[in-house]
Design goal:
Shape of chain A: globular
Number of strands of chain A: 5
Largest interface: A-B, 41 and 41 residues
Distance between the termini of chain A: 48 Å
Oligomer: homodimer
Strand order of the largest sheet of chain A: 4-3-5
CATH topology of the largest domain in chain A: Arc Repressor Mutant, subunit A
Strand content of chain A: 15-25%
DNA sequence: TTATGTGCAAATCATTTGCAAGATC
DNA sequence: GATCTTGCAAATGATTTGCACATAA
């Protein structure tokens, strides 16, 4: 993987977020600073970075994928109303993978835990 | 929600599965019996049925959504190689939602737990 | 006889890809 | 200079939608 200015910009921009943005959000933000960057480049780099383990792709919401600069195992909370994704800084249940292994036709290498509900902001609105 | 023959067919066909098919798989199977049913109808009915809680939409794999006729809380295992989705009949961790609530800016109403790894069949191939 | 559901084709949304030109090693 | 990366536009894949016709209540 060669160096590229655009890839660095994508990485830097994602790191500014704590709210797991989608590719088009990163694109829109970068466009302001770098009016020539293309959406395809943003997609290409997000894909490359997640394949190399530098960032994490979150695929549990319908519609667009979200991206997380924090690659350490942690959990998420998704608001069913607005679709926003929040971190859940609770203790990780390390034992789960071993627990599951007995019930699975294969080898378990990890897990993903997502909580659903309604965020405070959306609750206030309704 | 009125009765419709097509919706019943979609429901019945999904119930025959234990492997969480996608909309286009259900469509292809139904087409053999009912050569006039359309893909749009299959999508419409899968959406309606999941909105009414009669089935469950699984959105954790990139690409197409999968559907599950079993609406009871249970966990899944996804093979990273072939993308197939298996049930994990382990005990559900009931306490998780309450545990998470303390760390979440909103109200938790449920969770989804997905294990990742490689299924036996794919392991044999490589 | 009104509201709902269907089939078809076209539209939309997220993402990927081919290609010629530009940047990196 | 060979290889990797970009920007653009076109292609792809999954899903939704508009509309005229058919079916259910």
């Amino acid at each position: 993987m060669n160096y590229s200015r655009q890839r660095e910009e994508v990485m830097d921009q994602l790191k500014l977020h704590h709210d797991h943005p989608t590719a088009d959000i990163i694109f829109a933000e970068l466009r302001e600073r770098d009016p020539n960057i293309s959406l395809a480049t943003v997609y290409r780099n997000l894909k490359l970075l997640s394949e190399h383990g530098a960032i994490k792709k979150l695929t549990f919401v319908s519609g667009a994928d979200h991206f997380d600069p924090n690659t350490e195992l942690h959990y998420h909370f998704v608001c069913n109303e607005c679709g926003r994704v929040f971190d859940v800084p609770m203790k990780v249940a390390e034992h789960l993978d071993q627990d599951a292994e007995a019930f699975v036709p294969g080898e378990v290498t990890g897990h993903e835990l997502v909580f659903y509900g309604v965020c405070d902001e959306c609750a206030r609105k309704s």
